[in-house]
Specification:
This protein is an alpha/beta fold. It contains ten helices and 14 strands. A seven-stranded parallel β-sheet has the order 3-2-1-4-5-6-11, with helices on both faces. Helix 6 packs across helix 10.
């Protein structure tokens, strides 16, 4: 079996690649290095290039006799998407259409899509079920919802079978310490907080302290990146076994506030973390927590690292041992 992983040198993608390689599955890793790192290849075959390059995609799909695609390549900064929506629609939608076209021409009809719970917008019910109304509050969430809708139409028209996994804050690092989170610039809360603990930043900004939550700060899902990667493998196994197209929400069921993350990080690191209140960011909902009952029931997903403390411990191990990330 051969799997093409787009964005496989990035954070979540590299963790999925590691699990695939560990299982002896041939992996072709396509990444443009906008957020990826060559040292995160984990033994996969690496091709540096753009998912919007039709000729390159055609060559990969045919030359490596690809059976399925895991699609991680996307921009994912909510704030940036509000300021520059064109960038997100071009990369997350238009270039994904190029990928789908080449898949159809090559006869590759299995896709695992890394989606987001941002497709829901401000939730009416928490935890959020799969059937919850979709009303994204930012272009990033809308771009992911657009592709979900496109995939549904490709199933009906062309027989493409796909599974979308909706999650929010991928967190932590592989327990082996081989790979972890390294974004430049970094926009995820946990690594920013740990940078403060390491002395690489003076403080962390809290975007809004007057949200309608118990402590006034935003509440988000934090799911261990290895658990997310495992879900992608379960989805691939389901499609290989003939499963129909589907979508699954993934979350911890409760969510944690910004202040809870900072407090837990202080406990794990043993260091004081300076936090400064800042204005709310446009496009941010107050509380986003996805339920995971469906994927646990249908695919047998069982998180190995469900606790925030454990998530931050693995992240701290990576960041403290790799203060400059992958160093590239």
């Amino acid at each position: 079996m051969a799997v093409l992983v787009t964005g496989g040198l990035g954070y979540v993608g590299s963790h999925a690649v590691k699990l695939l390689v560990d299982r002896g599955i041939e992996v072709v890793n396509l990444d443009d290095l906008s957020f990826g790192h060559k040292k995160a290849a984990c033994g996969s075959e690496v091709v540096i290039g753009d998912i919007g390059d039709a000729a390159l995609l055609r060559d990969i799909l045919v030359r490596y006799d690809i059976d399925a695609v895991m699609h991680f390549a996307a921009f994912a900064d909510v704030g940036e998407s509000v300021k520059n929506p064109q960038k997100y629609y071009i990369n997350n939608v238009s270039k994904s259409l190029v990928l789908l076209q080449q898949m159809m021409e090559a006869g590759v009809k299995k896709l695992i899509f890394s989606s987001t719970a941002a497709v829901f917008g401000e939730p009416q019910v928490v935890p959020i079920p799969e059937e919850h109304p979709k009303n994204p509050t930012n272009p990033y969430g809308r771009s992911k919802l657009m592709l979900e809708e496109i995939l549904n139409e490709y199933d009906h028209a062309y027989g493409l079978k796909w599974i979308a996994l909706r999650y929010f804050n991928a967190s932590g690092a592989d327990p082996s310490g081989i790979i972890g989170e390294d974004h430049k610039p970094e926009h995820h809360l946990i690594p920013i907080v740990l940078d403060v603990a390491l002395g690489k930043r003076e403080s962390v900004s809290i975007f809004g302290t007057d949200w309608p939550t118990p402590d006034g700060t935003c509440i988000r899902d934090y799911v261990h990146v290895t658990d997310l990667a495992q879900a992608h493998l379960l989805a691939l196994e389901a499609l290989e076994s003939g499963a129909q197209s589907n979508v699954y929400n993934m979350g911890n069921g409760n969510g944690y506030s910004v202040l809870e993350v900072i407090s837990t990080a202080e406990s794990v690191t043993g260091r004081k973390i300076k936090a400064i209140p800042a204005p709310r960011r446009e496009g941010d909902p107050a509380r986003l927590v996805a339920g995971s009952d469906k994927i646990k029931r249908e695919l047998g997903w069982k998180p190995e690292f469900p606790e925030l403390k454990t998530i931050i411990e693995t992240a701290w191990r990576w960041h403290s041992n790799h203060p400059d990330g992958f160093g590239d």
